[in-house]
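Morning run. Coffee first, then this:
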Amino acid sequence: MKRILAFLFIVSSIAGLTAKEKVDLVISGGTIVTMDPARHVIENGAVAVLGERIIDIGLASEINKRYEAGRIISAKAKIVLPGLINTHNHAPMTLFRGIADDLKLDIWLEKNIFPLEAKNVNQEFVHWGTALACLEMIRSGTTTYADMYYFEDTIAEVTSNAGMRGVLGETVLQFPAPDNKTTAEALAYVKRFIEHWKFNSLIIPAVAPHAPYTNTAESLKECKRLADQYSVPLIIHVSETKDEEKQMHDKYGVSATQWLESLGILAPNVLFAHGVWLSQEDLGIIQKRGVSISHNPESNMKLSSGTAPIPQILAAGITVGLGTDGAASNNNLDMFEAMDFTAKLHKLTSMDPTVVPALQVLEMATIGGAKALQLGKDIGSLEVGKKADLILIDTASAHLQPLYNVYSQLVYSARGSDVRTSIINGKVVMLDGRVLTMNESQILKKATEYRDRIAGSAK
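And here it is:
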């Protein structure tokens, strides 16, 4: 009898030791580029996901022994990377892609984009333009984006339905916009928008005054009050062009940054889009106040706005994220291309090939972007406890072989089209190149319809 009991005890002990913990998803067998504080890279690694969050990361052999997954995705011959974070976009403007190219910013905006928006932008336009943007971003590895536009409730609905994460801000202006004809109406819209989306798992509402030169001191202060009241980000274009800075100096006698500082606007929840014409004094203020910057090299180059002093900004300890800007001035939303341009642009303008190296650029597109949007605790790196936002990049292509340095390969060689699978908030939104959360053919058909409509309105 004692022998039987001993045998049963051993069997039960072994069963206890070998019992696997159940998880929803395991991504197994790839090169895991964590972007964690130690910048660990795990060859033949795996990521275990339960619900919205990562619960374990390690060698595939260990993760597979430890967990029983409801779903296993093979990452063989793939790089597993945190989802890319686009810190500046105007999503619906995909429908204006290519309609007004090779123009100066003031002519592009005032003579082309503003009139086209007045004739075409309504809730339906915003719906389909956002759908096209989300489709493009999911396909090219972006899992979170920051937006400033109109009818932001519609943008939030489309983004959420697509399974994407968005930091979304309703634009506030001192002149009539397509959705709100007065600043007071826009501010009331912002308040309702924040209250409606504040606790959504994918949507982070924001306040988005367009720029210092398109807002009054009073409207900027009210935007600041709302952002602080609801603890949400404040996103604003600052120092995008030399003409803008001249306008600020002519009107107020100081730079845009210095004027915002005098109004008490600047704080860690503020994100500057562009920051091309920042002085050393401006950088000191930005660093002191904990403001972050979204660098948009392609849009700045295409519009000849200038080159942001990114090496100096980084040297000052300021957080920098990368953005594409809207597709009307880029003309795509591919963050891999944005990384490539960032690294090469600053090497060229500084005449120093060592500045802004590949790892630093990848940081801007991942953990740096997360921190810039006040989301560093939840996304931007693959770590236990963080949201499961990650992408799988296929390396079985001629332009990605051989692979010596994974950071260089991602920044200089990879393209958005190399992304095969996207997972956001623990949900698979694209698998093996097929987007699961959107009707791709319908969206592309609508884009063609809008092309004909918008082209007609431009005559």
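Residues 440-457 form the longest helix (18 residues). Good start to the day.
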